[in-house]
């Protein structure tokens, strides 16, 4: 006899959403446990660092899952802080070894499918009875020792929620009001950043910013770049657009920005300074230290003959975002998912056509970029 039946519900809960709650309720109905232990981790060994600190996720689990449960379930439930406070990735077999009773571990289908990559899977299999909630439309293979929890669960992705939060999208369908309020109060998942941008940019520029960030993130997923970096670069690429051309000229001089051909830019087209001002603001005002993100922001307007993957993605996203109205924008945007370099070349060509049609000055960096891309 193993003792009381204990339901163990582990995960990152980054953030806890309505899908987590629905799975737990269905698991309780099926397993009928005597005790429920919710175990937010500090960091999953199979994932990168969580996007919200463990102390915040512990609080969100309490207000977003525990507090929503019916009283008869809530009184037998606790949030175990062992993993969250460990300051290191804790393997599930360690946690289960520290628990007592007839253990029943519950997780989502994605986690179940990755079970073979968990630490000591053979030992884990004997430590608990394993349950999973099916993801709508999922076609992956779940190990045979898992039992399926009956029910249809919301098709909610924590990754997509974090992206939506960072892009100022409505997440009220996925997250409870208390979780949304907590995220806003604590400025989690980029919420504080978009709030500041919204207050400093014109509405049309803010809308463009969100469109560029969304497209950059999507292109990054397509081409194997870091989607979080791409989205961040997109959000901050026009931060310097808060300034007028005369203000940009003064900003560059006072802060001694290293803008190529600065005197000519100030005389002929000072708005071109905005990319360098945006990089400066990203670094000093928004605390961005990532060199790839800063490079992409700096190069998104004039370009450079040495463009890395993130540079290319942001340049194309800025040139072809859904709010762009030039005739070839949608065509180049579609091309970017099949041939990023071709889309970059077409984007630069469109910029050259537009600039020369206005009889405006072409910055040498843009000319160098075109010459590096043009077919021989």
Structural features, described:
40% of the residues are buried. The chain has a six-stranded parallel beta sheet. 51% of the residues lie in helices and 9% in strands. It has helices spanning 18-31, 54-64, 71-74, 92-98, 109-113, 121-127, 158-166, 177-186, 191-200, 203-223, 227-236, 245-254, 262-268, 274-284, 291-299, 309-320, 329-335, 340-357, 364-373, and strands spanning 5-11, 35-40, 77-79, 102-108, 129-133, 146-149. It folds into two domains: 5-157, Rossmann fold (3-Layer(aba) Sandwich), CATH 3.40.50; 190-373, Hypothetical protein af1432, CATH 1.10.3210. It has 19 helices and six strands. By secondary structure, it is of the alpha/beta class. Helix 1 (18-31) links the parallel strand 1 (5-11) and strand 2.
